[in-house]
Structures are given as structure tokens and as C-alpha cells.
From TrEMBL:
CDD domains: HTH_XRE. Residues 92-113 are annotated as: Disordered. The lineage of its organism: Bacteria, Pseudomonadati, Pseudomonadota, Gammaproteobacteria, Pseudomonadales. Residues 102-113 have a biased composition (Basic and acidic residues). This is Helix-turn-helix domain-containing protein. SUPFAM superfamilies: lambda repressor-like DNA-binding domains. InterPro entries: Cro/C1-type_HTH, Lambda_DNA-bd_dom_sf. Gene3D superfamilies: lambda repressor-like DNA-binding domains (1.10.260.40). GO terms for molecular function: DNA binding. Residues 24-55 form the HTH cro/C1-type domain.
């Protein structure tokens, strides 16, 4: 009888896979690469890409490594996990709110030191 991978996986390991999948998805999105493009580059199906990004425990490690190589060529899994992705950091910085209007004369005088 076939067992489901998710049911055999402890919760703390499942959450680690979900975090890895989200980090890979963030890296892909920051580089403006579609799931279909990653699938072609990594020579896997788009469904597998979706499963990797969701943290599916049934995905082979080799497929995850091919995904990583398609999105960030030359970066090892260890480096990916230990160093922040500059593209993701930049994407998050651009997403922060900025003033919607410039300061007026009265406000400029108030902040003039």
C-alpha cells in the first residue's frame, strides 16, 4: 500500500520544506521568471514546480536542485540557504511604502534644521 509522503513527515520538517519552497518562489518572482520558464530550464513539469514551491515532501531532491540551478545558476543549496538573495531584498525594498506627495512649504520649514 502506498503511503502519502506528507502524512509520514513530522510537522517541523514539513514547515522547513514549505519555507524552502517559499524562498525558491520568492527568488523566482524577484527575477521575473514564470513557473513555465523554470520548468523548461529545469527539465521538469510545471506541476513539479508548483509542488516544489508548496513544499511537497514527495519531490525528489534532484528536482529541487535543478529548480535552483534554473533560477540561480551556479549557487549551491548551502549558499542559497545561508545567504540572503539580493534580488529578493531589492524586491522587498521596492515594495515598501513611500510618500505619496512631496512636503509642502510649511512642512519643509518645520523640518529645516
Amino acid at each position: 500500500m502506498k503511503r502519502q509522503q506528507a502524512s509520514a513527515m513530522p510537522d517541523h520538517l514539513s514547515s522547513q520544506l514549505a519555507e524552502l519552497g517559499q524562498a525558491l518562489a520568492d527568488s523566482r518572482i524577484a527575477r521575473k521568471i514564470t513557473q513555465a520558464e523554470v520548468a523548461v530550464r529545469a527539465n521538469v513539469s510545471r506541476n513539479t514546480i508548483v509542488r516544489i514551491e508548496r513544499g511537497d515532501a514527495g519531490v525528489a531532491v534532484g528536482q529541487i536542485l535543478r529548480y535552483l540551478d534554473a533560477v540561480r545558476p551556479g549557487v549551491s543549496l548551502q549558499a542559497f540557504l545561508s545567504q540572503p538573495d539580493t534580488a529578493v531584498v531589492q524586491m522587498e525594498a521596492q515594495g515598501k511604502r513611500q510618500r505619496s506627495r512631496p512636503l509642502g512649504e510649511k512642512e519643509l520649514k518645520r523640518y529645516d534644521f
